[in-house]
TrEMBL record:
<dbReference type="InterPro" id="IPR008969">
    <property type="entry name" value="CarboxyPept-like_regulatory"/>
</dbReference>
<protein>
    <submittedName>
        <fullName>TonB-linked outer membrane protein, SusC/RagA family</fullName>
    </submittedName>
</protein>
<dbReference type="InterPro" id="IPR012910">
    <property type="entry name" value="Plug_dom"/>
</dbReference>
<keyword id="KW-0813">Transport</keyword>
<keyword id="KW-0732">Signal</keyword>
<dbReference type="Pfam" id="PF07715">
    <property type="entry name" value="Plug"/>
</dbReference>
<comment type="similarity">
    <text>Belongs to the TonB-dependent receptor family.</text>
</comment>
<dbReference type="InterPro" id="IPR037066">
    <property type="entry name" value="Plug_dom_sf"/>
</dbReference>
<keyword id="KW-0998">Cell outer membrane</keyword>
<feature type="signal peptide">
    <location>
        <begin position="1"/>
        <end position="22"/>
    </location>
</feature>
<keyword id="KW-1134">Transmembrane beta strand</keyword>
<dbReference type="GO" id="GO:0009279">
    <property type="term" value="C:cell outer membrane"/>
</dbReference>
<keyword id="KW-0812">Transmembrane</keyword>
<dbReference type="InterPro" id="IPR023997">
    <property type="entry name" value="TonB-dep_OMP_SusC/RagA_CS"/>
</dbReference>
<keyword id="KW-0472">Membrane</keyword>
<dbReference type="InterPro" id="IPR023996">
    <property type="entry name" value="TonB-dep_OMP_SusC/RagA"/>
</dbReference>
<feature type="domain" description="TonB-dependent receptor plug">
    <location>
        <begin position="119"/>
        <end position="225"/>
    </location>
</feature>
Length: 1023
């Protein structure tokens, strides 16, 4: 009996406890709680819903729905990786919960060659999930990022379909070796254009800004790095999503060219010839009499005439996009397949762009040690009349500004005139006909792909090898008909010309990387070492023909005469060693050190190798005891970094002398040989950028408010630039390392969760201040640019920012004889002519009086995003802006030409004609021999480029589908892109830049393809 006493006593005590628990529970009210869990965009699958203090729980289904039996007053915990844990009190009825992403404890951040917990990142990295941007209906992924990332300036310099985005991270890092960041897609560095990438394929973007974050990309990281991660198979089972949007595009009325209509133009011309007769004894060559030309004798006969800009536009140009994606995930296999079609017809007649895309990302996990992957992404792009002959000086849009409004674009019988000439004007083609007959088609095919394998050698030790490939082919078919050829100053008819160009290229890359992760107590070590090699090769060919029998057959076999033919090839290679150490002590003391050593074929034999080290430190101060219990500060991390990165983007063979075929006369006979056509520089070396970054990340009030701040200072040495040589050398220039300049600035990003609950309001704001200064330019600090009175708008000089505007300072008109007699004068000056400021005080106005007249670099840029949600409805809008800086409206070089050869701005109606009729005091007289100075680059053309733009407004609704085994959810939305622009700049686009990638020539408006306002309706369906 004694042996069984203890077991029996234990059983009785256990039974008594269970009875008491049952009695206690009987008094509590049982209830069933149900609802939907979502984030700010859509329902969330796989959220754990647990009753606190118990093992009772469930997970949300594919529609984000859950159901759980519990008791009144129980605490329910909602958990999902990447979101803040949320706790609510159970009560009767439906409980819908919205989870918010944790600003600092979000899961993993994509970094160079891997991922890292956000808390442990010591570099300046901004990451955006593609789900935040899915309702921004644009064709290029860089457009989606506009105004959303501190330190990143994304400008839409032209509205050409499929093009027009200029991206700069922390300003420029080079004057002449490119400033486009390096794009890395799923670990594969991309060479050349990135417009082939379908935005719907993308899962996240990581923008690496400081040297610590970018140094593992070494010689290509000076301009920053954008890591693009495409969709992978995840979750459970098979998920299918379809998305589509369609809309129409219009050119806004604001900023259209304010040029004269037909009646105004005829009146101006009449006044012009009256003054020529009065002051110059002009005689009409058609009649031999001093009389007004017939075209302009009676201005009242004309109405508005031809609006050449408007007639070249297409209102309601359609845009459409379709995307179908499938993801699957099991223990052994995961896959994500996305197929897309994008079609954007241009708002300029007979222009358009199409893209067909496909991507398949597959990963196999045969066992716990081995992972294999294969990814492939073919694309086809079709450009119709979008890559040339629309933007820029003396192209189609520029021609529409200056063509005579008296001339018709379409004859009364519907036929199209060939030319548009009226008396005294430079000859012009019919630009409407040029566009209608234009044929300039590009067909671009590209295949990106890679295979990889990762093997776990030991606990914490992995080896990964991968092989990437990039294959491309491009063809261009160009045909200029006899009735549309010529251009400005050379009106048709001309001989028809045809051209066919081809380009093929391939690039392969192989990487082999060991990684090792080890924890020893509170110490965590993460090591990486590897070797990578890459080769790129391209081939080009072209043939030109003319003497076509007619304009009906645009193919080259119809042309009788070959006017040009050629082919060439080029290649480069890169070989690299990489290494990195990440160290963490107690999760709050952080250290990262990295090194990349690159060897590039582009540099001289003695300068091919460069080393690019970096180091960064971080301190998670909020984990210290003195801050752990703070009710205000929920997260605080201080960090700093310093490192060196490079730039080898100078083209191929700059370091060696190049030869080309030439003919020699030997013994009276012509013999073919070779001659040197460019001078090499065997000492040509790396352009390097040193960068310091100091920053902090702060979370307040349980991360209701998050703040990120960075100060950066970067200095570029050994600037790569082609230096002009004396003519006696026989060469025009040679590439060398000649200069030094620095950039510095501040970046601030603020996120706030203003309201939570049934009505949700979140705000994101960022602002960036950038400055730059040139420190050295070669041996003699000789300025770059600004030497010519016309067409040479920018100058870069020591002690100044890069690419400032340079010219005369406009000072009005000599209104009276007294003003003319007492003021400094140009050699062409007369009463009523333009007056420029005499800056050097010698009482003579000449090119020694030119100076810096503007700066295209803004004082700061900013972006503001607001997201609102109420039940199933949501509203978001993005405001972006730029403050300070100027744009030079170089179209004035033609539209303020007072020689009666172009149409002009309406203000030119106010010309000075006499002391009794002096006009508005801004526009000089038209006296022959005096008008050139008014066309020289001057401050009159410079305007503030400050703007505030409502980039995007989207209103959407989510529909949850009940009791349907096929449909999971549907989302519909309406969106306006480029909804509103507030600016004092008189042109259409204050972001315009004729040479957007060249920091030496920023901010020049020589006309550009208009950026449209787009209205779209979209739908997303989950299956």
């Amino acid at each position: 009996m004694r042996k069984s006493f203890k077991p029996r006593l234990c059983k009785e005590i256990l039974f008594l406890c269970m009875l008491l628990q049952a009695i206690s529970g009987y008094g509590q009210q049982k209830l069933v709680v149900s609802g939907t869990v979502s984030d700010k965009l859509a329902p969330l699958e796989g959220v754990s819903v647990l009753v606190q203090g118990t093992r009772q729980g469930t997970k949300t289904d594919a529609k984000g729905q859950y159901q759980l039996e519990t008791t009144q007053g129980a605490r329910l915990n909602f958990k999902l990786i990447g979101y803040r844990d949320t706790t609510i009190i159970a009560q009767n009825g439906t409980i819908n919960v919205q989870l918010t992403e944790s600003a600092q404890t979000l899961n993993e951040v994509v970094i160079s060659y891997g991922t890292q917990q956000r808390k442990e990142v010591t570099g300046a990295i901004s990451q955006i999930e593609a789900t935040e941007l899915k309702d921004v209906p644009v064709g290029q992924f860089s457009q989606k990022l506009q105004g959303r990332i501190p330190g990143v300036q994304i400008s839409q310099t032209t509205g050409r379909p499929g093009q027009g985005m200029a991206v700069r991270i922390r300003g420029s890092a080079s004057m002449n070796a490119g400033n486009t960041p390096l794009y890395v897609v799923d670990g594969q560095p991309i060479t050349g254009d990135i417009s082939n990438i379908n935005p719907d394929e993308i899962e996240s973007f990581s923008v690496l800004k400081d040297a610590s974050a970018t140094s593992l990309y070494g010689s290509r990281a000076a301009n920053g790095v954008v890591l693009v991660t495409t969709k992978k198979g995840k979750g459970e089972g098979i998920n299918v999503n379809f998305s589509s949007y369609g809309g129409v595009q219009y050119v806004p009325q604001r900023g259209r060219p304010d040029v004269m209509n037909a009646r105004e133009f005829a009146q101006w011309q009449k006044n012009y010839y009256e003054d020529k007769i009065r002051y110059e004894d002009w005689v009409n060559p058609a009649t031999g009499l001093a009389e007004i030309p017939d075209d302009y004798k009676n201005p009242e006969q004309y109405g508005a005439g031809t609006d050449w800009y408007d007639i070249l536009l297409r209102d309601g140009a359609p845009i459409q996009n379709y995307s179908l994606s499938l993801t699957a995930n099991t223990e052994k296999f995961s896959s994500a397949v996305t197929a897309g079609y994008f079609n954007q017809q241009g708002v300029v007649l007979n222009t358009g762009y199409q893209r067909y895309s496909f991507r398949a990302n597959n990963e196999f996990r045969p066992n716990d040690k081995l992972t294999l992957g294969f990814n492939i992404a073919p694309t086809l792009q079709l450009d119709h009349n979008t890559l040339s002959n629309t933007d820029g000086q003396r192209q189609v849009i520029d021609g529409s500004f200056i063509t005579s409004p008296i001339s018709p674009a379409i004859n009364p019988d519907g036929s199209l005139p060939i030319t548009t000439n009226t008396f005294g004007m430079f000859p012009n083609p019919n630009w409407y006909r040029v566009l209608k007959e234009k044929l300039d088609n590009y067909r671009r095919t590209r295949i990106l792909g890679n295979v990889y394998g990762e093997f776990k050698i030991l606990e914490g030790l992995k080896f990964k090898t991968r092989a990437d490939f990039d294959l491309g082919a491009q063809t261009q078919q160009l045909y200029v008909s006899s009735t549309s050829g010529g251009g400005l100053f050379v009106a048709p008819p001309q001989r028809a010309t045809g051209q066919y160009n081809t380009e093929t290229y391939y690039s392969w890359l192989n990487e082999n990387v060991f990684s090792y992760n080890k924890s020893v107590g509170d110490h965590i070590f993460d090591l990486l070492a590897g070797y990578t090699t890459q080769k790129y090769r391209q081939e080009n060919s072209a043939i030109d023909k003319t003497d076509f029998p007619n304009d009906q057959i645009p193919w080259l076999d119809a042309g009788a005469t070959v006017t040009g033919a050629g082919s060439n090839t080029a290649a480069w290679s890169l070989e690299s060693l990489i290494g990195r150490l990440n160290y963490s002590f107690k999760g709050r003391y952080l250290l990262s050190a990295a090194m990349r050593r690159d060897g590039s074929s582009r540099f001289g034999s003695d300068r091919r190798w460069g080393s690019f080290p970096s180091v960064s430190v971080g301190w998670v101060a909020s984990d210290e005891n003195f801050l752990k219990e703070s009710e205000k500060i929920s997260f605080l991390k201080l960090r700093a970094s310093y490192g060196l990165v490079g730039n080898n983007n100078i083209g191929n063979y700059r370091s060696i002398a190049m030869m080309s075929p030439t003919n020699y006369v030997i013994g009276g006979s012509l013999a073919q040989g070779l001659s040197i056509n460019s001078l090499g520089n065997p000492a040509l070396g790396w352009e390097t950028t040193k960068q310091l970054d100091i920053g902090f990340e702060l979370g307040l009030f349980d991360d209701r408010i998050s703040l990120v701040y960075d100060y950066y200072n970067k200095k570029t040495d050994g600037m790569l630039y082609p230096v002009e040589l004396p003519r006696a050398s026989g060469f025009s220039s040679v590439w060398t390392n000649i200069g030094t300049f620095k950039f510095w600035g501040h970046e601030i990003g603020i996120s706030s969760k203003n309201l939570t609950g049934e009505f949700v309001w979140n705000t994101d704001f960022n602002i960036t201040f950038n400055r730059n200064k040139v420190l050295k330019l070669g041996t003699n600090d000789t300025p770059i640019g600004g030497y010519n009175d016309q067409g040479d708008f920018n100058r870069t000089a020591v002690g100044h920012p890069i690419g400032q505007f340079y010219g005369y300072v406009y000072d009005g008109v000599y209104m009276t004889q007294e003003e003319f007699d007492t003021q400094p004068k140009h050699s062409s000056s007369a009463i009523g002519t333009v007056r420029m400021k005499d800056l050097n005080g010698d009482n003579v106005i000449d090119n020694n009086d030119r100076t810096f007249i503007g700066d295209p670099n803004p004082d700061f840029i900013f972006g503001l995003t607001n997201n609102f949600r109420y039940k199933d409805w949501d509203l978001s809008f993005l405001i972006a802006g730029s403050v300070g800086g100027q744009t030079m409206n170089a179209t004035y070089e033609n539209t303020e030409n007072l020689d009666a050869v172009f149409n002009m701005r309406k203000e030119m109606l106010n010309v000075w004609r006499s002391p009794e009729n002096p006009g508005n005091g801004e526009v000089p007289r038209t006296l022959a021999g005096t008008t050139a100075l008014f066309r020289f680059t001057n401050s009159r053309w410079v305007y503030s480029s400050t703007y505030v733009s409502l980039r995007n407004v989207t209103l959407g609704r989510n529909f949850t589908i009940e009791n349907n085994k096929y449909l999971k959810n549907i989302r519909a939305y309406l969106s306006i892109q480029e909804a509103l622009m507030l600016t004092k700049y008189p042109g259409l686009n204050p972001e315009v830049s004729a040479r957007a990638e060249d920091p030496l020539r920023l901010g020049i408006d020589q006309t550009a393809y208009p950026v449209p306002r787009t209205f779209t309706f979209g739908i997303n369906v989950g299956f």
